[in-house]
Design goal:
By secondary structure, the chain is of the alpha/beta class. It has helices at 48-59, 63-73, 91-94, 151-166, 180-189, 209-216, 241-246, 257-267, 289-295, 310-334, 348-357, 391-409, 417-426; strands at 4-10, 17-22, 32-34, 84-88, 102-103, 106-107, 116-119, 130-132, 137-143, 171-177, 195-199, 220-224, 226-230, 233-238, 253-256, 271-274, 300-304, 337-340, 371-375, 381-384. The protein folds into 3 domains: 4-119; 130-341 and 354-381, Rossmann fold (3-Layer(aba) Sandwich), CATH 3.40.50; 391-426. It contains 13 helices and 20 strands. It is 35% helix and 22% strand. The chain is globular, with a radius of gyration of 22 Å. The strands form 4 sheets. It has a 12-stranded mixed beta sheet with strand order 3-2-1-4-7-19-17-16-12-9-10-11, sandwiched between helices. The protein has a 3-stranded mixed beta sheet with strand order 8-20-18. A 3-stranded antiparallel beta sheet has the order 13-14-15. Strand 1 and strand 2 (17-22) form a beta hairpin. The two termini are 24 Å apart.
């Protein structure tokens, strides 16, 4: 998949930020300078179009950038999408909703041709990530937001899982919650043989939630909790059984976003969904929750730019999962080999659903811009090994290839050519 990457970084000694575009077109990279100070004064929700048009005007000021964007907008419908990715290192610019970008009187992120996502700041680990996959798909849902009813969140996710299974995709689900009456009991009553229900106990130290994540080895990790930021550190707050029984609004389990990212990376997770408030809120140079997850090696993460209403959080999940599970099903149907799964495409339907829930006019309400996808640069691919090869075996093979490839890359310029040739011969 081809991608267009817009870099917006601090400009040393210059006013505003430096903007550069990488594209698959034969156009040289040229740096232009843009200022966004006045755009930060456009306070949503009622200024969505004004903000989107302002961002578009700023990045179009350079003729070369204008040329690239014209080529992007000429991308024909009905073909593979041409995602527009923003890697925004300038803190002021990063706080703006680039998801609201307008071109040709349309919000690009609401169309299939130009889905908009972001590349996480702080990531030095991976690009063009490849992950092994042997069905079943493993989905882990941690639904434990004290004071919030997660029943609808769970019902929507399980309905998507049920439909995916009926379409031929095996899915195993691990459900973790501290809400006994609202979530755990109804889930147990389903009698789903491919559903493991786990109570988040009190005290939490008996079974640390990160250990539960690593034991479950999820491909997709979904978290419905409370998001908090303390001293520029992103935290996820989760309630135990005791927290829900007390009903005083406090959560006993506090997980740093970076710890969650490291745990998810160790399991080989593909994506973490942070259906929490402020999971993608960017108000400083500090990484957002979702960025922390990606910066620590998970290929993709979804977060919300600010406080999110529980009904909107539920609607997002209900619309997002059918599309993602269908995409995985298409990969499985393609058979052995490497196949792309385009994370940037997966938010279009969910954004449209949020738009429709709030009046249908995307210029009047910005709720549809709240879900933000951060990813590693380059396409994400799933590697389906030949029949009889397990996922762990394939993961080892891919890891060995990455290690040997890294050794080849760091060989000094004057090294004996036979050394590189020998290493290449060892690459699986």
């Amino acid at each position: 998949m081809k991608e267009v990457v817009v870099y917006v970084d601090p400009a040393a000694g210059m006013p505003g930020a430096a903007c550069r575009i990488e594209s698959p077109f034969d156009v040289p990279d040229v740096v232009s300078f843009l200022t966004v100070d006045d755009l930060t004064q456009l306070v949503p929700p009622g200024v969505v179009r004004q903000l989107g048009e302002g961002l578009s005007d700023r990045i179009r000021q350079n003729p070369t950038v204008q040329q690239v964007l014209d080529l992007v907008l000429a991308h024909p419908p009905g073909q593979v999408s041409l995602p527009i990715l923003f890697r925004v290192g300038d803190p002021l610019a990063h706080s703006l909703s680039w998801e609201a970008l307008v071109a040709g009187n349309d919000f690009l992120a609401l169309g299939e041709r130009w889905p908009i996502a972001r590349i996480a700041r702080g990531s030095t680990l991976d690009r063009d990530p490849v992950r092994p996959f042997v069905p079943p798909l493993r989905l882990m849902c941690v639904l434990s937001a004290v004071g919030q009813d997660a029943a609808e969140e769970w019902t929507g996710i399980h309905a998507a899982v049920t439909a995916a299974r009926a379409a031929g995709l095996p899915v195993q689900v691990t459900l973790v919650s501290g809400d006994e009456a609202g979530v755990l009991e109804p889930a147990r009553a389903l009698g789903d043989p491919d559903l493991t229900v786990v109570a988040l106990p009190n005290p939490a130290a008996d079974v640390p939630v990160l250990a539960l994540v690593e034991n479950s080895q999820p491909h997709i990790l979904h978290v419905f909790g409370h998001g908090a930021i303390a001293n520029d550190i992103g935290m996820v707050e989760l309630g135990t059984i005791g927290d829900f029984e007390r009903a005083d609004g406090t959560s006993s389990v506090l997980v740093r976003a970076e710890e969650l990212g490291l745990a998810a990376r160790r399991t080989g997770a593909w994506c973490v969904v942070l259906n929490i408030c402020r999971g993608a809120e960017a108000g400083s140079a500090a990484l957002t929750h979702a960025e922390e997850v990606v910066a620590h090696g998970v290929p993709a993460a979804v977060g919300m730019r600010r406080q999110v209403d529980v009904d909107d959080a539920n609607a997002f999940s209900r619309e997002w999962y059918p599309g993602v599970l269908a995409a995985v099903q298409r990969v499985v149907a393609a058979g052995a080999g490497q196949h792309e799964l385009a994370w940037s495409d997966t938010l279009v339907a969910a954004r449209r659903r949020l738009r429709d829930l709030h009046g249908g006019n995307p210029g009047d309400d910005d709720t549809w811009t709240l879900p933000v996808l951060y990813k590693l640069p380059g396409p994400f691919r799933l590697e389906l090994p030949p029949a009889g090869v397990g996922e762990n075996q394939e993961r080892t093979r891919l890891s060995e290839g990455d290690t040997l490839g890294g050794l080849i890359d760091v060989l000094p310029a004057g090294a004996d050519a036979s050394i590189a040739a020998e290493l290449r011969g060892l690459v699986p």
